[in-house]
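Cast an eye over my tokenised protein here and flag anything odd:

===
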Amino acid sequence: MPIINRVAEMHDEVTGWRQHLHTIPELLYDVHQTSAFVAEKLRAFGCDEVVPGIGRTGVVGIIKGNLGAGPTIGLRADMDALPLTEITGKPYASQTAGRMHACGHDGHTAMLLGAAKYLSETRNFAGSVAVIFQPAEEGGAGGKAMVDDGMMDRFGISRVFGMHNMPGLPVGQFAIRPGPIMAATAEFTITIKGKGGHAAMPHGTIDPIVAASQMVQALQTIAARTIDPIDSIVVSVTKFHAGDAYNVIPQEAKLAGTIRTLRTEVGEKARERMRAICEGIAAANGASVHVDIDVNYPVTYNNPDEATFAAGVAVGVAGDPNVQADVNPVMGGEDFSYMLESRPGAFIFLGNGDTANLHNPAYDFNDEVIPHGVSYWVKLAETALGR
């Protein structure tokens, strides 16, 4: 089944919504303008229920089918932006300094609104569709907040599906896999305390920069020498702060970064090894160390049956050659993982074409993607809830 004719007719309208949302980027849970826009549209479409304030600023719309009783499936889009300064120069560029939609959540929201409009008009399914608009995906665990707020039980959601655009994948193509598709993430901060002093008399100091430098190198052995090469892991030190004078050996140094894995037990082993490495190097240098690790998003794990189902729907929209049903996992994190822990479902990638990468100040969601994403959502709902 190719692009739905009615969806193609809606392309300009949905593009207008997307570009409006692009001008008003909001961060984390402070998505008040965005969630108000979403709720207003859902009410205008005639959704049977529109419930704001789920997970603080999330919005859920319920659309009941005309074919009788049945289960409820959830379709989720994220709404928040990133703290970046946009350099696209587009006429609809961000109107707020230091904020931009650099991950395409404006496009995700607009496409799900397009699907909600279509499904509200046609209602050619049994049961109900819950359209879920989530805040705080970018580090705020908004997906967890919505689940913890009782969303799944309150609306009787039995299966849940998510979608994300992917730069580099051609427009009109989809990619998915059963099992882990995105990584679990953890953030670490390592504080090394030494003994400061004059740079001309290092023998009277305990240099935390030397110890921290050794740690940066040694932490790479977690992937190289601790974890089975068959398992995926990334340990990245992304911050190194120490000192502020040419002639002073500082008292303290700080490192920070992330650990990303595709299996829970690999993450646990990596964290254990990180503590041991840092404590050993600190002791060898006569310094002290504190390792703080914040375990955040879990592995985004596609239920195998639901991944197969979602791939089949994508084939119906795009054709078999345009669907990768066993794509390699991505080591980025995604808090749709919390919804997949709560209910079976699947997360799929949608091609954004040859654009700047995600989280880049030159990125912009490709509006040519819209009919493909909306058609996927519609066909998924109608197939999952068909008689």
